[in-house]
Amino acid sequence: MRSRLDFTRLRALLAKEWLQIIRDPSSIALAFVIPIIMLLLFGYGISLDPKKLPVAFVMDKPDPTASTLLARFRHSEYFGMVPTTSWGEAEQMLLDRQVDAVIRLQSDFTRRLRTGGQAPVQLVVNGVDSNRALQILGYVTMTWNRWLVEFSETLPGAENLARVGLVDLKQRIWFNEAIRSENFLVPGLMAIIMTLIGTLLTAMVMAREWERGTMEALLVTPVRRLEIVLGKLIPYFLLGMGGLVLCIVMAVFLFNVPFRGSLSLLLLLGGVFMIGTLGLGLFISSTAKNQFVAGQIALLAAFLPSFFLSGFIFELTSTPIFIQVLSFVVPAKYFVNIVQTLFLAGDVASVLLPNLAGMVVLALVFMTLAFRKTRKSLE
């Protein structure tokens, strides 16, 4: 009985595939150049922490106390204060989209603050973009609270500020103490990049064989389906893992994202994820048999769902139930949670194990589909 897996034939297939990779550097560029470009674009070009937001500041009656609050906003990195002379001018600037918000201190601001009443601070925000409006509201509230704490002991009538409800808060933020959006975006982006790389790397290989007419020559050889699949899988698995290592190095040393987990565990789980995405690419390639069509299907079936349904940008718990259920068949959903946990929190088994189980199931499904679709026949 002949062995089902002949390592001599497998070694020959691997050598053939490596020669094709070396002679066609597009695969190497896809594995190493695309991660660099995407990390640089997303890491530096996209931020969930907007700075220098255009805000107009109006004081009905200027006084030293209100001026100290204005100085606090002016020196904050989150606000770009726009000078105004009246409420009417500030309102018109808001309507013209020259500013995103207007902060107004009414004429009795200082008197009511000193007497222990509620100081009248009016905040008007352009709510077209609800996320931006909530961010402005949070920034203004944070700046106001810090100003109260800093000046409560120096302002006249400070003994009455306790009646305003001033509380000395000691905040502690877990896992992302600096509140940098890069610490959240870059690890999640790694999962998106690896999905794109893994799927596109193998989405082209089988289709390329059919287009060039070399698949027919391969079918008449004694090689088996398993050997064909492994011969296509192993070289691109190594390329994909090289891309993952490059992403980790850039995240830690270029974007200064803290890494608190185990590097070996990240590589192990990344390998499981890579097998699943490579299997999906092989299935697409074997089905399409055309490089252009395979590439388009890979973008639609892998990249777009992983971008929108993985929790990378949008919180899935706030989406409809149908979308949440659909996200369970997206491999990037599990790897995003794994990478963000390993980078920011560490080796948290209660998070890693369920996501690992999901990746294993999807990897088995995609590899089974790829194997069944790979046939030694022209029909």
Automatic annotation (TrEMBL):
Name the InterPro entries on file.
ABC-2_transporter_component, ABC2_TM, ABC2_TM_bact-type
Annotated localization = Cell membrane
Against PROSITE patterns, the record matches this protein to: ABC_TM2 (PS51012)
Membrane topology qualifier: Multi-pass membrane protein
Keywords associated with the record:
Cell membrane, Membrane, Transmembrane, Transmembrane helix, Transport
Report whether Lipid metabolism shows up as a keyword of the record. Answer: no
Q: Which residues form the ABC transmembrane type-2 domain?
A: 151-377
Q: Where are the transmembrane segments?
A: 28-46, 184-207, 233-256, 263-286, 292-314, 321-345, 351-371
Main localization, broad class? membrane
Family membership? Belongs to the ABC-2 integral membrane protein family.
Protein name as it appears in the record = ABC transporter permease
List the taxonomic lineage: Bacteria, Pseudomonadati, Thermodesulfobacteriota, Desulfovibrionia, Desulfovibrionales
